[in-house]
Amino acid sequence: MSRDLDEILKQVWPRVRKKHLFPELPNPEMGGGESSVGLDIRAKKIFISREFVSEMSPALDTEKVIEGLLDHAVSHYLSCPWDFATHLKLYAKAKDVLKNKDMALKATDYFMDVVADTHCVSRKDTPIPKIYGSAKKGGALDEAIHALYQRIWGLDLGVKGYEEISRKLSRIPYLDRNTWQESIRRFSKAVKFLLEMEEDLGGTDGQSPMGSHSLQQYSSQELEEGLKDLALEVGTPYEFKKIVQDFEDEILQATQAGGEAMGLGPGQGLDADTIYYMKLAENYLLPIRKLPMEKSGSLYPHHHTPWEVGKPYQEIDPWTSFGKIMPGITQTWQRFEGEVFGKGEGTPDCIILIDSSGSMTDPKQHLSHAVLGAGCASDAYLRNDAQVAVYNFSDARSGGQKILSYSRSRKMIYRTLCHYFGGGTRLLVEKIDGLQTDKVPDIFLITDMQITNLENLIQYFNDCKNRVTAVHIGDNKHVKNFRSAMALRKNVEIYAVEKKEDIPRIVLGKVKDYLYSPGS
Amino acid sequence: MKNPFLDFQSVPCRKKEIPLERIVRARKEIMDRLSEGYLRLVEEEVKDLVWLVEHSHVVRTYSAAVSAIQDLQYDQDDIEEFCAELDNANAFPYMISGPAGIYLSALINNAAEEHILLRLSEYERTFHFLGYRLPEGKTLVLQGNLGDFIGAGLCGGRLMVEGTAGNWCGAGMTGGEILVTGYTGQKTGEWMRGGEIHVDGPIGGFGRARFGGKIYQRGKLVVPHESE
Predict the structure, then answer these.
(1) Does the beta-carbon distance from A122 to B81 stay under 8 Å?
(2) Which of A45, B34, B153, B180 could bridge across to B161 with cysteines, CB 3.0–4.6 Å?
(3) Which of residues A35 and A438 earns the better pLDDT score?
(4) Mean pLDDT of A164-183
(5) Which residues of B touch A153 (CB under 8 A)?
(6) Cβ atoms of B179 and B159 closer than 8 Å
(7) Strands A331-341 and A293-306
(8) pLDDT for position A187
(9) What is the largest CA-CA distance in chain A?
């Protein structure tokens, strides 16, 4: 029987692929698993439960069961949820209504099933309705969803009752992708009482015969992209955390192979705030040329120009002049100054000074422009093989400071940037001095300038040779003092930030100035 | 040469019309018409800049609401969904609570169903004037905490509030029954002419000007008082 199933699968899969216009999915496999659930999808690979198929076989032709299960799985890939970010956003809406992780997961699973299956039923010839008609029903919610299918597909699946709930659910435009967020909110609201009833009767373990949708179905690359999109879409790190922390184990598990790329690793908890800023900063990528060019001072022949009377003879190119000295025929070499790599090859390291005093935004609650800006800057240096040190300060004298020495670990850098003290503002210039190296690193300061010992910092910047980019959030009299004190310093550039969009733009511009040669 | 697109020719890609599409289309048409009627009503009301709760004003608004929904076929699900639309701040440009409640009451009173249940507990918006002029033969069940003038002008219907009601509950009612499982606010039963109000929780205060009707608290008659 087992071998038969493998062979049937091999015959059915090309047919299903063709029906769905050849989706880019790996070949499915028959697997073990539970008899109550037909499918398991891991990293896009579909596994079909032998037990489920065997159990369904007396009621339905084996080929049809396999074809229906494959149709269902492919529809998820092609229509809903489509990607990890959409999956998370749907879950977030369901969670808003249901306030419970298990219930929200179950509602999201069912919603995605309804969308994917309806999409398939409305466009393809599929045995999905026959599977639903023959499979064992999981519970009250499962029966209600079957009643919904009956109503919206216009087929008899053998379900009685659930008139009111199926009528309410049938009004939702499942096939309109643009309204999915509102649709799942309405869906969750409608099924809430059934989920609560199931929970009262002993949990929400029962699931759709087609199986549930774990995050394992996504590849680690999809997870990374999804988190990036999500960070851009949600308004605050708090919202991001609210969604992501529910999947801490799943994301860690799924990304362990990815390791450092995501800033995660085995044995460490998921720091949603850090991930939020890391992913958000990725949306503002900075193109940097690695090696700045300098004029070499020597001339080299660049192109030909016709020789004219009065022009020097030594520049004549005899090979292209046909051995003649005649205006219009004779060619001379035009010489240009060459460019070579400068002395300071590569990109300098960077010391990031970030203010996390009480007057700054708490990066865990709201979007902190300071952390985002510093993150964009650190990413730019890291991408250019430089190292980044961080001095996060609040009231440094009473311990409100955190120092990260030169590192290329993005995770460590962002963790230090995201730390919030919320106290007074006083920094210790000797700590900045301790981070100086022979290679003269760049300094990136981001603060609201309400620093108690600002004059010490001004004095330090007046004495140092580093290139300094100072970004101030908002405007106040300290900013004016700082600006006037630094007015004559050529190595200090000051930028103001008024709104969210300013920071990445300024950081991009500034670092571009540093790392591109003028005029390039 | 073999046609490289030959494989695709046999793929059935005809779109079938399933009942869902018909249901969603019909629902959208009704919701559009309900929204249109509501917006027309509100645009008329905002011309006065201030919406005053005056008897004549309320009556005029109700009449306008009734004429706005004439010839419209809708059911309880549509009303419930329209409540959700009203709760959604982005759906309508004007948010005036009074006309919204009166418009909903007009929808309820003119619906085909005799028994209507509205689940309002999860909405952020507070609805006022629900159950206004609920006629005889209609039962309206409202779940959630409601605003002012609930069951105002009730004329024979049965209004059950599974939650609380604000001030002026049952104001000016002429008949019928209001049952509130929670509390009611100030001026409960003001200008009441007939019918009964039953409150299971505390009553913030009774209306002074009353011309009939009875108010019960936890099954005990409290208005009119034995001494009155």
Answers:
(1) no
(2) B180
(3) A438
(4) 93
(5) 18-20
(6) yes
(7) antiparallel
(8) 95
(9) 104
Rounded Cα distance between B168 and B148, Å, is 6
Tell which of B10, B11, B18, B20 to mutate to test the A interface (max A CBs under 10 Å): B20
List of domains in chain A:
1-218 (no CATH), 220-281 (no CATH), 293-341 (no CATH), 350-515 (3.40.50.410)
Chain B residues close to A171, C-beta within 8 Å:
23-24, 27, 77, 81
Cβ count near A298 (within 10 Å): 9
The two tokens of residue B154 are 């009730």
Q: Is B18 on the interface with A (CB under 8 A)?
A: yes
Q: In Å, how far is B135's CA from the nearest CA of chain A?
A: 25
Shortest CA gap B35–chain A (Å): 17
Q: What is the pTM assigned to this prediction?
A: 0.74
- Within the 121-140 window of chain B, which residues sit less than 8 Å (CB to CB) from chain A? 122
What span, in angstroms and rounded, lies between the C-alpha atoms of A120 and A112? 12
CB contacts < 8 A, A to B, total: 56
**For residues B133 and B108, is the Cβ–Cβ distance under 8 A?**
no
**CA angle at A204 for the pair A198 and A208, rounded to the nearest 5°:** 105
Whether B21 sits inside 8 A of A171 (CB atoms) is no
The mean pLDDT of chain A is: 81
Q: Where is pLDDT greater, at A180 or A57?
A: A180
Chain B residues close to A18, C-beta within 8 Å: 7, 10-11
Give the residue, A499 or A374, on which the prediction is more confident: A374
Q: How confident is the model at residue B89 (pLDDT cuts 50, 70, 90)?
A: low
Q: What is the pLDDT of residue A427?
A: 84
Per-residue pLDDT reduced to its tens digit, A429-478: 889 999 998 888 888 898 888 888 888 888 998 888 888 888 888 888 88
CB pair distance less than 8 Å for A122 and B24: no
Q: Is the pLDDT of residue A398 over 80?
A: no
Range from A84-88, A209-213, A393-397 carrying the lowest mean pLDDT:
A209-213
**For B12, what's the count of Cα atoms within 13 Å in the CB-facing half-sphere?**
11
CA-based nearest residue to B61, from B71, B50, B70, B51: B51
- B75 at A interface, C-beta within 8 A: no
Instruction: Measure the CA dihedral A151/A152/A153/A156, to 10°.
Output: -10
Closest CA to A40 of A212, A192, A294: A212
* Alpha-carbon distance B75 to nearest alpha carbon in chain A (angstroms): 11
pLDDT tens by residue, B131-160: 999 999 999 999 999 999 999 999 999 999
β-sheet bridge partners, residue B34 = none
Do residues A450 and A479 make contact, with C-beta atoms less than 8 angstroms apart?
Answer: no
Are residues B11 and A19, on separate chains, in Cβ contact within 8 Å? Answer: yes
The residue of chain B nearest to residue A193, with distances taken between CA atoms, is: B119
Residue of A nearest to B76 (CA): A168
Question: Cβ contacts (< 8 Å) between B12 and chain A: which residues?
Answer: 19, 124-125
